[in-house]
Amino acid sequence: MEASQQARQIGFIGLGIMGRSMAGHLLAAGHTLHVYNRTRTKADDLVARGAHWCETPGDVAAVSDIVITMVGYPADVEQVYLGAGGLLDRARSGTMFVDMTTSSPSLAVRIAEAARVKGCASLDAPVSGGDIGARDAKLSIMVGGDQAAFDTAEPVLRHMGTSIVLQGGPGTGQHTKMCNQIVIASTIVGVTEGLAYARRAGLHPETVLKSIGGGAASGFQLNVLGPRIIQGDFAPGFFIEHFLKDLGIALGEAAQMGLELPGLSLARRLYEQMAARGLERDGTQALLKLYEA
Ligand code: NAP
């Protein structure tokens, strides 16, 4: 670890599919880690490896130089940051906050302003790369905020990702993540339909994947989720309920800009059908189930 990072006390809140792996990389890199999660047992592995458990988000803020959050929904982000006894209530001046949850751009702007009032800095820094990217520390991290805050946080973010890009001021990280989700939405529909077609045509999907996975259609959705679809492995990965959250944010933002996105709207309708069947805790690749019904 660089000398400039040695005194860092890092807080991490949200230890689910993504956060647990990401926090683990910070511990492995030698940082002192203070952790909190709604369900305490999800911190057990990290605590066994030396992380310090805190009883509330505010307790994390009180002992940390940098606090990273990776919770589920904008409502969770709002509660953790702006709620009574939350991060900003207890933050010391000079603390840096990095929200890596996929959340709303306008909430990121509100948090940045509230942090500034407390003499703190904040970045919105959502990620792409999935459970595998988190596990392998190969995430793409899309950052919104000040250059100075970015420069301070970047060496810490390097432990979790390989592409770390400052997009602009507060909220631009979340807007960039929406661009990412818009691309993924139509892509996963295409991947699912291609594989449903392969089966119906009597082809061997694994063999089809050997061809199309090496051509112009290749990418994470086809090459990583395609094999899971073929094997009937619908475990998350990335929860359908979180994807629906993202599609709602993106469509809401687009509507405010007067931008119509019919591909995105179609993907949301299909995933709403999945949720109506009670499949919202499946991974996004489970979309195939619609085509087999
Ligand atoms: P997850 O497994 O549900 O993890 C979220 C964690 O945050 C859970 O452990 C949850 O606690 C905790 N949490 C929620 N609200 C909290 C609160 N108020 N206080 C403390 N802890 C709280 O979800 P995930 O897959 O890791 O995703 C996390 C975020 O990253 C989401 O916004 C998602 O859209 C985004 N994302 C996910 C992926 C992916 O492939 N999974 C990829 C990119 C981005 P409990 O344990 O009690 O539920």
Task: Describe the model.
The chain has 293 residues and is of the alpha/beta class. The protein has 14 helices and 9 strands. 53% of the residues lie in helices and 14% in strands. Strands 3-2-1-4-5-6 form a 6-stranded parallel β-sheet, with helices on both faces. A 3-stranded mixed β-sheet has the order 7-8-9. Helix 9 crosses helix 11 and helix 9 crosses helix 13. Mean pLDDT is 96; it is low at 1-7. The protein is globular. It has 2 domains: 3-169, Rossmann fold (3-Layer(aba) Sandwich), CATH 3.40.50.720; 175-292, N-(1-d-carboxylethyl)-l-norvaline Dehydrogenase, domain 2 (Orthogonal Bundle). It has helices at 17-28, 44-48, 57-63, 74-82, 87-90, 105-117, 130-135, 147-157, 172-200, 205-212, 220-231, 240-257, 262-276, 288-292; strands at residues 9-13, 32-36, 52-53, 66-69, 96-99, 121-124, 127-128, 139-144, 161-168. Bound molecules: NADP nicotinamide-adenine-dinucleotide phosphate.
